[in-house]
Specification:
The chain has 209 residues and is α+β, with helices and mostly antiparallel strands. The chain contains seven helices and eight strands. It has a two-stranded antiparallel ribbon with strand order 1-2. Strands 3-4 form a two-stranded antiparallel ribbon. It is globular. The N and C termini lie far apart (46 Å).
């Protein structure tokens, strides 16, 4: 697995999950390999960059949040910790765990207090009361609950032994196996081909000279 969207911070994020909350889970590279596991959200700025690329916040909102983070680095660090806690709770819950649901519940309840319904051009829309350091987490939390209540059975994990990325399986037969055919799929096919070729060479009968 490698990521596929370069940002001006030098980080690289992948958007292959088919759902923004699951793309957020995938901000850890090589999740299942302790030696290679890489945290992509190294600071709050990385979180804002990811959220902007993912469409969770607009460019104008991202700039506003960055300004607030610059003025309140302690608050920004706490907000990043809270966001990562939600990410890990979603990862574990989506794959069947039951002991992290309270973290999602708490984040969702907080998120509901951060906004309200308003009528705009005869259409009801949800608007945040303000845009601040908690906005990204709140918006993700409001997305997580419908994801789990409607699509939990369609959440899958890449078949690569080290990758760990998750995705929403929308394939006709619900048999998606890789985060990406071009990444983990191709690498694992090449690995199997190499092993078969090597085994055939090792067990080939020797030719007498």
């Amino acid at each position: 697995m490698s990521t596929d969207v370069a940002t001006d911070t030098g980080e690289r994020f992948g958007f292959i999950a088919g759902d923004p909350a699951l793309d957020f889970v995938n901000t850890v590279d090589w999740r299942l390999d302790e030696d290679r596991r890489t945290e992509l959200l190294r600071d709050y700025g990385d979180l804002v960059t990811w959220a902007e690329l993912a469409g969770v916040v607009s460019s104008a909102e991202a700039e506003q949040i960055r300004r607030e983070a610059t003025g309140d680095p302690v608050g920004a660090e706490a907000a990043l910790t809270d966001a990562i806690s939600l990410r890990e709770a979603l990862y574990e819950t989506a794959l069947g765990a039951r002991d992290r649901v309270e973290t999602i519940d708490d984040a969702y309840r907080t998120a509901q207090r951060c906004g309200h319904l308003t009528l705009e051009n005869d259409i009801w829309v949800w608007r945040d009361v303000c845009v601040d350091l908690s906005t990204i987490r709140c918006r993700l939390a409001r997305h997580v609950v419908p994801l789990l209540t409607s699509n939990a059975g369609r959440i899958g994990q890449c078949g690569d032994a080290a990758c760990g990325w998750v995705f929403l399986d929308t394939s006709p037969r619900h048999n998606r196996h890789w985060c990406s055919q071009a990444m983990c799929g191709e690498r694992n096919r090449s690995r199997r081909h190499y092993r078969k070729a090597r085994a055939a060479t090792v067990h080939a009968p020797r030719q007498d000279s």
